[in-house]
Amino acid sequence: MAPTLADLRQRIDSLDEQIVALLAQRAQCVRDATRFKRDAFQVQAPARQAQVFERVRGLAAEHEASFPGLPAIVESTYRTLVAGFVAAEGDLFQQTEPIEP
Predict the structure, then answer these.
(1) Of 33, 40, 62, 89, most Cβ neighbours within 10 A?
(2) Is residue 1 part of a domain?
C-alpha cells in the first residue's frame, strides 16, 4: 500500500528532527574551530567555503536520480547555512580566546 500524504509528512517531520540535531552537532564543531582562527579572514575562510560547496554538490549528485536538480538545491541550502554559521562564528571570534592549532 502506498504511503498517504499524512505518512509522508510524518516522515518529513522525523527527517527534519534528525537534520536539526545534525546541524546542532555541526554548530558545535564550528564553535570549537573558532578557537583556531587568528583573524576575520580565517573566520570567512573563502577557500574552505568553496571546498564545502563543491563537496556537498557532488554528494547530492549521487542522489540526483531520485530528485532532479538536487545538487543545486543542496548547494543553495549550504550557501545559506554557511553564511549563517560564518556570521555566528564572527560574533564568537570576538569573544573567544585563541589556542595554537
Answers:
(1) 89
(2) no
